[in-house]
Amino acid sequence: MNTAKPKRFYKIAEAVEADGGHGIALDGKPVRTPAGRPLAVPSAALASAVADEWSTQGETIDRDSMPLTRLVCTALDLVPGRRAEIVAETAAYAETDLVCYRTDEPPALARRQAAAWEPLVAWADERYGARLAITSSITPIAQAPEALEALRDAVAGEGDFSLAGLSLVTRSFGSLAVALALRDGRLDAQAAADASLVDERYQLERWGEDAELAARCARVARDAADAERLFRLLAA
Q: Which of 38, 174, 178, 197 has its CA 20 to 30 A from that of 148?
C-alpha cells in the first residue's frame, strides 16, 4: 500500500467568501472535499483555522495534522446522507453510557468514578431532563425511555458540523453524557478526556506503563481537543 504523503502543490492558503458561507482557497482556487463538494463552512473563524492547517503544511501534506479539515469534510460529505444513522449511532451510547457503570472494588477507583461521573449524571438530568440510572453490576441496565428520548433529541438538534464533532468524541469517550458536556461547555477538553479515562488512568498508575493504554489516552485527549476547538470556532 502506498503511504507516501502528497506533495504540497500550492503557495498560499486563505479563507475566502463563498456561497452560503466561508471557503478556503489554495492559490486562489477553491478547495473541495474528497467527494468534490466546495469546502465551505458557516463560520469565518472556522474557515480561517482550516486555512491555517493548509498554510502550515511543509513540502508534503500530512493529513493527520489537519483535524479540523477532516471534521469539516466529514460534516460536508458524510453527515447529510447518513444523518439519521449518525444520530441513532451517537444517541445509542446513552443506553450503556460509561458514566452509569461503576465499580465497588477497589474503593479508590470507586471514589474516582463517583467524583468524575456523578456531577455529569446530575447535569444531564438538569440540562436535558435525562435521569440516567446507575449500576455497579456488569449486567446492562435499561435506561428510562424518556431519558433516552431526551438525549436523542439533543443529538438530533445538532447542526451537521457540530454533529460531526459530537459523533467523534462520543465514540472516543464511550459516553454521550461526557461528549454533550464538552459540546455545551460544561467540561473543557482536558476535563472531558479525564472523565472518560478514569479507569485507564487508574490502571496506569497502579500497574505502570502500558503502551496500548497510553496510546488510547493520547488519542482520547487529542479527539477531545479537536472537537472542543471545532465547537468553539462554530460559535465564534
A: 197
- Helix-helix angle 145-156:176-183, to 10 degrees: 40
Closest CA to 110 of 87, 135, 132: 135
The CA distances from residue 64 to 5, 61, 163, in Å, are 10, 9, 20
The closest alpha carbon to 46, from 76, 87, 90, belongs to 76
**Among the listed residues 142, 156, 185, the one whose alpha carbon sits nearest the alpha carbon of residue 90:** 156
- Is the pTM of the predicted complex or chain greater than 0.90? yes
Query: What type of residue sits at position 107?
Result: P
In angstroms, rounded to a whole number, what is the distance separating the alpha carbons of residues 216 and 171? 12
Alpha carbon distance 22, 31 (integer Å): 11
Task: Using CB atoms within 10 Å of the CB of residue 60, give its burial: 0 to 12 exposed, 13 to 18 middle, 19+ buried.
Answer: exposed
- CA 201 distance to own-chain centroid: 20
Over residues 146-190, the pLDDT tens digits come to 999 999 999 999 999 999 999 999 999 999 999 999 999 999 999
